[in-house]
Amino acid sequence: MDSAAATDDRVIFAVEDIGGIDSTTVELAPGVTVLAGRNATNRTSFLQAIVAAHGSDWTSVKGDADRGRVELELGGETYARTVSRTDDGIVGSGSGLLADPTLANLFAFLLEDNEARRAVVRGDDLRDVIMRPVDVATLRREIRDAEQRKEAIDDDLDRIESLKRELPELEGRRSELQTEIEDVRSDLRSVEERIDERDLDVDVTRQSRDELEATLDELQATRSERRRVREDVQSEQESIAALREERGRLAAERAGLTDAPEERLDDLESEIRRRRERKRELSQYTTRLQNVIGFNEELLAGEHTQITDAIERKPESVGDITDQLYQGSKTTCWTCGSQVKRERIESTLSSMREHRQETLADVDAIEDELDDLTDRRDDIEETLERRRELAATIDDVDEEIERRQSAVADLRERRDNLSSRISELEEEVAELRSDEFDEVLELHSEANELEFELDALESEYDDVNEEIEEMEAEIRRDDALLARREDIVEELIDLRTRIDTLEAEATEQFNERMADLLELLDYDNVERIWLERVDAPSGTVETVEADDVIEGSSFELHVVRSSEGGTVYEDTVAHLSESEREVTGLVFALAGYLVHDVHETVPFMLLDSLEAIDAERIASLVEYFAEYPTYLVVALLPEDAQALSEEYPRVTDI
């Protein structure tokens, strides 16, 4: 429950069979409420009922009953709990204000047996009390998970660094192969030009010449076909390289996308629905409220006379003689028919207008929250959609690469078949040749050797180029991985220092509040009471693999006194007066209240068993504590309650 939402709400408690209470209904306003009365007047029992309404079982059932019940009306909601006496103690059921009352039990319900108060009096481990609400097991799991994610990224980065070192050597080999390929291609073009220039008109029989020329023509055509196939292989390889480049860019973009857990969408949608429903309820409420305000304003302005005339005609609305004498300065209340001063109605209308403005401010705040939640939801949806788009595009690119690789394999097989056919044709030409054809045949043989050399060089070039492209695709992930690693390192720093930060803030809050109250309460010869945080030997907070144990600092409470002669010396908590110890315990609980932001979820703070502190100091203490909770309920004896401001409402009959 958000206590801020109930800032101006009065609350109603209906209690049955709790403590010594038979049945009672108590209404409380925001601010300080004093439960004034002697012992055995159910003041503490009512505080127990408030505790039970929050979801805690720190209560008791009336002696002649098996179970007790408490209902709380707050902020338009009703919370009902039943507490039953069992062999295992008090067991509660129903819907309390809090899902987990741990924080409230420790730092808001400051009754006599409150653990934070008693820890100071008994000299218990103060750090353990402050750190108890921290979910250490979850914190340790989060640290381990972040460390594992960081280690995985570190492994990837190490592998990328290794690739960076290997890349220049491969790029050098690729350049060498490009040069060798160009040289072989140049030599091959020169040989092919010489073959094309040869005059085959030699003195042989027509049949032999025709057969030889046909074979040479086929050989030439086959060579041309093989050259075309080789060019097709090169074109496909270039397309594959471009596709791999595109895939690397898409993969790098996908790796750089922020984390967007899909399950978070359901939580955000639920939050959005709840806030929209709350906004709708408040908007309807403000509309109804404005209707009531407007009607009353019109009534005061003299409109709706038929209503006032009808009310005044009823005998029971005539009122007594005094009302009749003052009728000229009064007006008729349309709700009850009595004559009341216009000022009272106008005052009520003014309060209603203020309440409406505050409700409209709540609507504006909810709208801001809705905008923030909607933006976060949209960001996650956009990220998830982009991730799906990238995954689909990468799959398409992979399919296209696979298709083209298959085409390359077919072309290479075609090229090999053509090479085999060229060899067969060369053998046929060798059988048909004469001395006059030796030069031509030697040129064909030389061209064939150059073709084989070119094929081998191009195959090696393809392999090296593919390896380089894969390396470059991995290296392009470097920046995204570094950014993710930086985020995880920041997360680890936050997780590992969370305990340290809480400890430091707890000591700071205690020391500041204690200094304020010592000055305010003016205890004789107590110069200072302060909490020291003593670091572990390593100076850092360290998680250990024990059951929910975190080794860190320890807290030491110091007392500094001054003698009548003005000498300042250090004393112990055991030598403090009972009043001083009680105040110190309350301030320690307040430090925990502030460190854990208890006011954000718990609207109530309870104070009881303050008899050890004199009345004037109780008044100052209550005024100091009243700054923090929405509702501060204090149980006091009548003589102590007299010292408090008359502005604080009293509850004397429970």
Task: Put the structure in a nutshell.
By secondary structure, this protein is α/β, with parallel strands linked by helices. 61% of the residues lie in helices and 14% in strands. The protein has helices at 43-53, 102-107, 115-122, 126-131, 136-197, 206-256, 263-300, 305-312, 321-325, 342-432, 438-475, 478-521, 578-595, 615-625, 638-641, and strands at 11-18, 21-28, 31-36, 67-74, 77-86, 89-94, 109-110, 330-332, 339-341, 526-534, 542-543, 550-551, 554-562, 568-571, 604-607, 631-636, 650-651.
The strand count comes to 17
Helix vs. strand class: alpha/beta
Largest sheet: 5 strands, antiparallel
Outline: elongated
Radius of gyration: 45 Å
Amino- and carboxy-terminal Cα gap: 27 Å
Strand composition percent: 5-15%
Q: What percent of residues adopt helix (DSSP H or I)?
A: 55-70%
Uncertain ranges: 1-7, 199-206, 315-329, 537-550
Average pLDDT for all residues: 82
Number of distinct helices = 15
Strand order of the largest sheet: 2-1-4-5-6
